């Protein structure tokens, strides 16, 4: 049985759209994870950080890379979903903003060794993440929920940043 010509075009367009969506997701994952990873390597904690007094709840250094990798995956998927839903919407703009601020924290804290300004950066990041969660809630609840572990970790990171700044 032959399909009508219009039906083939629709199936082909749908297939192209799905393929494009997956390519965009891969791009989101690569950009978010690679940039975060490169910044982590370029601004790695060194002797200065090792010499700082830290609070008793400071996790071992090996915890940070897997946690951030996992969070970056969630952040990328949330961004991709927001881009698919409303690429120029407020939630997407807040998502971009929080990511830029996220990437700024590492050099401020580790390379510039500015503990209190880094805490300010974390506060701004927290506010932007909350904005993403709230703005995405109605349009794409899964994208909103994907950001929850991130804001929880950034809350902990803020407490840790504040404690390290206070102790030093």
Overview of the structural elements:
The protein is built from 7 helices and no strands. The termini are far apart. It is elongated. Helix 1 packs parallel to helix 4 and helix 4 runs antiparallel to helix 5. The chain has helices at residues 5-42, 47-51, 64-85, 90-111, 115-139, 141-146, 148-167. The protein has 168 residues and is mainly alpha-helical. The mean pLDDT is 92.
Beta-strand percentage? under 5%
Secondary-structure-derived class: mainly alpha
Mean pLDDT: 92
Number of helices: 7
Which characteristics define this entry?
168 residues, mainly alpha, 7 helices, elongated
Quick gist of this model?
The chain has helices at 5-42, 47-51, 64-85, 90-111, 115-139, 141-146, 148-167. The protein is an all-alpha fold and 168 residues long.
List the topology elements.
Elements: H1 5-42, H2 47-51, H3 64-85, H4 90-111, H5 115-139, H6 141-146, H7 148-167
Helix pairs in contact: 1-3, 1-4, 4-5, 5-7
